Amino acid sequence: MSNNSDNVLIFYDIPSRCLGPWSPNTWKTRYALNFKNIPYKTIWVEYPDIEPTLKQLNIAPSMTKADGVTPHYTFPAIYDPVRKEGVTDSLAIAVWLDERYPDTPKLIPEGTLTFHKAFLAAFSSNIEAMRQFTFPKATWALNDRSEAYFRRTKEEWSGVTMEELYPEPGTEKRKVEWKKLEEELGRVAGWYGKDNAFVMGGEDNACFADFMVGGFIIWIRILFGKDSEEWKDVEKWHGGRLGRLIKALKKYE
Amino acid sequence: MSNNSDNVLIFYDIPSRCLGPWSPNTWKTRYALNFKNIPYKTIWVEYPDIEPTLKQLNIAPSMTKADGVTPHYTFPAIYDPVRKEGVTDSLAIAVWLDERYPDTPKLIPEGTLTFHKAFLAAFSSNIEAMRQFTFPKATWALNDRSEAYFRRTKEEWSGVTMEELYPEPGTEKRKVEWKKLEEELGRVAGWYGKDNAFVMGGEDNACFADFMVGGFIIWIRILFGKDSEEWKDVEKWHGGRLGRLIKALKKYE
């Protein structure tokens, strides 16, 4: 639940111009906090301010940049103003939340941390076709300072401009690449049991792996819009598997 | 336990000339059967006889060949001569064994089937550097009829002869590719908790994911030999993580 009183946990997120919360990785943590029903307040920080914000709070970076040496400061991050400690990286945050709030439902049920790490590796290798759609759409939706930062880093990654990267609607390339996305996500959908909304089963038994997938699937809904043809496609692909997941996660949005 | 009485479950495996059981995929099922302490007898079948054997038993193939259409008959397979039913593919066998033997320890603990499928995808994408070592070594260790079959299929896959594929000891290529294997397996090792031998924790709490990893790690020990430099490397890599796994699995060999 979002909360404005002092001393509640602080959740750091990145704003957009008009989409509301839009980042797939911070969505994982938003889902996690709401799932655990932990009071928090959201502070919105533009991309260029992430590193100074985390440094000031003394929150260690969770990874390095492509050179393997330079610390890479990323969101989501959370900060506990009472204990004066915080953590970044959505999986590390999930572990931290399970430890610090032992009376709330587990994000990583006993014995499943290794499975969660392997799940993240497997899922990450099946969202490659997604990036050409989502990186440009996100670039165009950010506030100016974040847009310049996001564009620069994603153009360094792709080697082309965001406008060149984006498969234009109506083109053959759009059709081919959209099909690739369907196939990649189909591999993810294939891991799920036929009758389960969630990774560990049922409709009411979410775990952090569901938020990993949910954060990236809801990204498509947010960037293209609830009523877009694109979202309608994703909702109905693979027997409605991914649409059902987002519906089952609605109570944690 | 291996057992010679009639009516016990039959476990189909592929022989080698002098290595004993050597196939990483059938090892997963051997570990699984021993873990569950189910009596079985092993029948050894050369590669060209796998398809006719499974057809005669009316066991459906678990996958298709590269063309996406032609059925691909593979081992491991198990067959229950009393119920007159069988199944192939090590993960499907694990599910089948959990269902048919409900009073034995679970291979796929409640709620972890999706995790197991994603684990298999993640693990499989981290054994790519292994194949150039293991496919040639296995080829050279098989009986003639299997050797010709295995060589043909693996050479079709790689586009070169097994002799060309194998990084010769003492060469720069050997060093580079062996290092790649260490790095790939290091990603797998990184998923594990520091103090756990097994995926779900502890030293006495194996699940089928441990047999997936174990089958491929023991492959290296079998192909190169217990006393080889190669096995000594694998045993000590990543803080001894993988060596510890094989040691913890010893009771199920």
Automatic annotation (TrEMBL), chains A, B:
<dbReference type="Pfam" id="PF13409">
    <property type="entry name" value="GST_N_2"/>
</dbReference>
<feature type="domain" description="GST N-terminal">
    <location>
        <begin position="13"/>
        <end position="105"/>
    </location>
</feature>
<dbReference type="InterPro" id="IPR036282">
    <property type="entry name" value="Glutathione-S-Trfase_C_sf"/>
</dbReference>
<dbReference type="Pfam" id="PF22041">
    <property type="entry name" value="GST_C_7"/>
</dbReference>
<protein>
    <recommendedName>
        <fullName>GST N-terminal domain-containing protein</fullName>
    </recommendedName>
</protein>
<dbReference type="InterPro" id="IPR054416">
    <property type="entry name" value="GST_UstS-like_C"/>
</dbReference>
<dbReference type="InterPro" id="IPR004045">
    <property type="entry name" value="Glutathione_S-Trfase_N"/>
</dbReference>
<dbReference type="InterPro" id="IPR036249">
    <property type="entry name" value="Thioredoxin-like_sf"/>
</dbReference>
